[in-house]
Amino acid sequence: MDSFSEDLWQYLGNTCKKIVLYGMGDGAEKIKRVLDDKGIGVAEVMASDEFVRGHSFLGYKVRKLSEIEELYGDDFVILTCFGSQLPQVMEHIYGVAARHELYAPCVPVAGDGLFDLEYAREHSAELKKVYKMLADEQSKRVFENVIRYKLTGKIDFLREVETPDEEKFDLLNIGTEEIYVDLGAYNGDTVVEFLNETSLQFSKIYTMEPDVKNYRRMKRALYRIGSALLECYNCGAWDEDTTVTFNLRGGRSGSVVPSDAKAADGKSLNPARFREVKMMKTDTMLRGESATYIKIDVEGSESRALEGARNTVSEYKPKLNVALYHRNEDMFALPMMIGEMNRKYKLYMRHHPYIPDWDTNLYCV
């Protein structure tokens, strides 16, 4: 990070080129807010040709790339404001980046602030510590390149170190007698992936999913598994057994909000957008029994979920698959937390194909 004289946000503040947002939705709104806070103007909003139908977004007429080119020649910067792991979408983005100056700004999925140069320097000691904890050279390359991406928004840093998603099963050495805990099971997709990998051979599966609709979809997807082998809980993974308020627009499974939170105008928040959700510790769910493999992808609550599995992690050393991309601090705080819980782990970091860095994970064995 010391090799960078400026981060993406500083560059955007200094450039004379027109800034074009690519995409419509929550990501574009979030990036626009950051630019507004920094006094950086946006000239245009564009979308892929098939999504342009003469409509507007954030007060801008949505244009095709060809229209942007006609207006500004090559005197513009494109900021990709959405995420995708679809090969055809990623190839399209890389194709646009080959013709024009393009970045994918890193804004946290959960939490506040930015992973900019100031933040990286503030946490340089933790970052250096985690780098030394990593078990192989590929992990160290991933760690370095993801940080470079976060600072610059340059997607080539991610592309250089991406490896297939299936690699995780080799790293974790998944067998046929696993006691699998899926925290943030969504609609059951990762459980089905696990079942396919193990050819339906396992000892037990536990799942937690807080969203009611996703929970029902998961139950339908897994209906063939008998109750003796599968325990599903309509709750979220947490560091205590309690109830919290969730913002239903906060992500795949929502996001936690304080019980006394207010809207921007100081008024009470619309109750239709929020609901009370049961939360539970993994240690409580397992009732002192062991687990051999735990996956944690809980939309920014990973540290709380880990704390709720402290006894299990400390005593049984289950293999861990932990998302590292929701919060700015995840890249260093989560590996350090796991290392403190059980010093016997070997830590591997991988980035699987995704723009931006939304499939960067820690594998602990």
- How much beta, percentage-wise? 15-25%
State Rg. 21 Å
Q: Percent of residues in helical segments?
A: 25-40%
Report the principal-axis shape. Answer: globular
Main sheet, how many strands, which sense, barrel?
7 strands, mixed
Q: Any low-confidence stretches, pLDDT <50, length ≥5?
A: 250-255, 257-267
How many angstroms does the end-to-end distance come to? 29 Å
> Count of helices?
15
Determine the structural class based on helices, strands and strand pairing.
alpha/beta
Strand order of the largest sheet: 9-8-7-14-15-17-16
Counting DSSP E segments of at least 2 residues, the number of strands comes to 17
Give the integer mean of the pLDDT values: 92
Description:
This protein has 365 residues and is of the alpha/beta class. Helices cover 37% and strands 20% of the residues. The strands form three sheets. Strands 9-8-7-14-15-17-16 form a seven-stranded mixed sheet.
